[in-house]
Write a structure and sequence with these properties.
The chain has 4 helices and 7 strands, in the order βααβββαβαββ. By secondary structure, it is α+β, with helices and mostly antiparallel strands.
């Protein structure tokens, strides 16, 4: 049994572990804390464990996926897709018509995941990450 719910401060330590295992340059603890009031900061909880999270924000009048990650042991089980669909629902609730995100140019698996969820490449952004370019993707919601 699982639930997707708004993140709580007590979740941050588990979220940071997932973040550290998921990204070459992970977000620090304080960035997660700064999003605590954000209604788009959600977690996937299964058996009292946080196995994934997503953070939705805004960018240029669009809903914008700031970050999404799933614990490596729980990947390829639909957790990421469920989190992404919940973010889309939240964005619709707030009246947004489009969602954008950036993904590392070298992260072909991530790009395929977003394409499978209706996102299309919009532009390439050189030097977006310290060690990589980004692909900005967008979809109508």
């Amino acid at each position: 049994m699982y639930i997707i719910r708004k993140a709580q401060e007590k979740d941050i330590s588990e979220i940071v572990v997932i973040e550290d295992m998921s990204f070459p340059v992970p977000w620090p603890h304080f960035l997660f804390m700064s999003n605590m009031g954000n209604p788009g900061f959600i977690v996937y909880q299964e058996k009292k464990r946080i196995t994934g999270y997503a953070i939705l924000g805004t960018f240029m009048n669009n809903a914008h996926l700031l970050s999404i990650a799933v614990h490596p042991a729980h990947r390829r089980h639909g957790v990421g897709s469920l989190l992404l669909q919940k973010c889309i629902s939240i964005a619709r609730y707030y009246g947004y018509e489009n969602m954008t995100l950036e993904v590392r140019e070298k992260n072909l698996e991530g790009q395929r995941f977003y394409q499978a969820n209706g996102f299309k490449e919009k532009e390439s952004i050189e030097g977006y990450y310290l060690d990589d370019n980004a692909v900005r993707m967008q979809r109508k919601i």
